[in-house]
Amino acid sequence: MFPSKASCDPPFEELYKALLNNSIAQCSQVQVHEVVGECELPMIDLSGLRSGADEDERRACAAAIAKASSEWGFFQVLSHGISTELLGEMRREQMKLFGMPFEKKTSSGLLNNSYRWGTPTAMSLSQFAWSEAFHVPLEKISEEDGRSGEFDSLRAAMEKLAGAMSELARMLAGVLAENLGCPGECFIENCSERTCFLRLNRYPPCPFSPETYGLMPHTDSDFLTILHQDEVGGLQLMKDSKWVAVRPNPDALIVNIGDLFQAWSNDIYKSVEHKVMANGRLERYSIAYFLCPSYESTIGSYEEPSPYKKFTFGEFREQVKMDVKKTGYKVGLSRFLI
Q1: Of which family is this protein a member (predicted)?
Q2: Tens digit of pLDDT per residue, the chain (338 long)?
Q3: Residue in 206, 252, 213, 262 with CA at minimum distance from that of residue 235
Q4: Which domain does 189 fall in, by range?
Q5: Alpha-carbon gap, residue 302 to 24, rounded angstroms
Q6: Long-range contacts of 89-97 (CB under 8 A, 24+ apart)
Q7: Spatial distance between the Cα atoms of 276 and 298, rounded to a whole number of angstroms
Q8: Looking at the domain assignment, is residue 52 inside a domain?
Q9: In what order do the strands lie in the sheet with 242-246?
């Protein structure tokens, strides 16, 4: 018997009942081979990059960012310039948005019809995501949808947060490019509101197998991602061929390298596989900003020779879609190796 859920939750049990029942029946027979420890991501205070910092502070901060991007592919930042008031305002608006009845989220065309949930193509629990999200192009945040101002405060908060995260992402990308001897703007000139995204995530409580994914293992298909998460936890990443759980720190923002930056840097910076595990009792919220170029942009390399063929972002996205449709999983950069 499946438990009743709040009206705001997607009907995971209804649509995936056979898949979930099958996983529960097999749960006691399945051995989990992944050993998960807990880690504290490298913490970097960005005050060394701000105006007024001396050159030694700037060099030390830039070196710490580059080191973490090479060794971990992930790091945390403090003094990032995004106020706790704005993050708190965004969280309240996000909770209000996801608290609407499920039918309203799916049928009202909210935020440019950006609502999604679960994994419609899932054939097994390993391909299934127990989560819901609004994945919104920045240029669509302020687009009118004829809802008579119902979501004006949400749009206003999203616009402010997107602007602040865009500024932070460009600064970090510039530091990483300069570390390799390139002008900071050399590859992000085609990143704009038309191509970058803000994603609002909610992971409802999941009463089933503890191995259920909130978000299945993947790498990000962008230059870099900035994440603000709550205190619940669930984010895990691959480190030294083992999954490690990231200890949540709501005061810090998490930054991770995406596939495009790994390709551009000739594998110096690492786009690391990560996932979110569902929580049996608590719901989890996060907000992610994705720094992406135009679909026509050629990614190239900061230095030749490169281990990768030249490709556009559009070609990369299409290959990812084809692989997911065919196999259920993203393949990613290895498709473009020479």
Answers
A1: Belongs to the iron/ascorbate-dependent oxidoreductase family. GA2OX subfamily.
A2: 344 456 899 998 887 777 767 655 554 444 344 656 889 999 999 999 987 778 999 999 999 999 999 999 999 999 999 999 999 999 999 999 999 999 999 987 888 889 999 987 777 778 889 999 999 999 989 876 656 678 899 999 999 999 999 999 999 999 999 999 998 777 677 788 888 999 999 999 988 767 789 999 999 999 999 999 999 999 999 999 999 999 999 899 999 999 999 999 999 999 999 999 999 999 999 999 999 999 999 999 999 999 999 999 999 999 999 999 888 889 999 999 99
A3: 213
A4: 33-307
A5: 48
A6: 89/157, 90/157, 90/158, 90/161, 90/228, 90/287, 91/230, 91/285, 91/287, 93/153, 93/154, 93/157, 93/158, 94/154, 94/200, 94/202, 94/285, 94/287, 95/285, 96/154, 97/134, 97/151, 97/154, 97/200
A7: 31
A8: yes
A9: 37-39, 242-246, 235-239, 274-277, 213-218
Please list, in sequence order, all residues whose beta carbon lies within 8 angstroms of the beta carbon of residue 310, skipping any fewer than 6 positions away: 298, 299, 300, 301
Q: Is residue 25 part of a domain?
A: no
Residue 101 included in any domain: yes
* CATH code for the domain in which residue 269 is found: 2.60.120.330
Locus of tokens 């065919």: 326
Domain-embedded: residue 119: yes
Predicted TM-score (pTM) above 0.85: yes
Cβ neighbors of 133 (< 8 A, separation 6 or more) are 115, 116, 117, 199, 200, 201, 202
How many domains, in total, are found in the chain?
1
Pairing between β-strand 284-291 and β-strand 197-203 as defined by DSSP bridges: antiparallel
Amino acid symbol at 167: E
The bridge status of strand 253-257 relative to strand 235-239 is: unpaired
